[in-house]
Write a structure and sequence with these properties.
By secondary structure, the protein is an alpha+beta fold. The protein contains 1 helix and 3 strands. It has one domain. A hairpin with a 4-residue loop joins strand 2 and strand 3.
């Protein structure tokens, strides 16, 4: 299972949202979490 967090418009709350996504995904025994930012056009593996 892979959790995906998509931020359309990252701002000062970006780190908070990523942290929340990591916490949320941990509830589902997720081994991989993909963070996608459409602004930066990058994909970060946590």
């Amino acid at each position: 299972m892979k959790a995906i967090l998509v931020l359309i418009n990252p701002d000062e709350n970006e780190e908070f949202l990523i942290g929340y996504a990591l916490y949320f995904a941990s509830k589902f025994d997720t081994s991989q979490i993909t963070y996608i930012s459409f602004i930066e056009r990058t994909c970060h593996m946590a």
